[in-house]
Write a structure and sequence with these properties.
This protein is mainly beta. Helix content is 12%, strand content 35%. It has a two-stranded antiparallel sheet. It is elongated, with a radius of gyration of 14 Å.
Length: 48
């Protein structure tokens, strides 16, 4: 509910939640990001 309010959408609106941890060359964590993406505006493509 809090996320929907922040994003100006009705409660119950589906979102894509992405989390990313970036590490330095020595394996230290240097960035942690949580993103909420409205699937009406974004598509997620992953390649491994």
């Amino acid at each position: 509910a809090e996320d929907a309010a922040i994003l100006g959408c009705p409660q119950g609106t589906p979102f894509l939640r992405g989390r990313r941890l970036t590490r330095a060359a020595d394996d230290r964590p240097i960035e942690y990001v949580t993103s909420l993406l409205n699937p009406a505006h974004f598509a997620l493509h992953m390649r491994f």
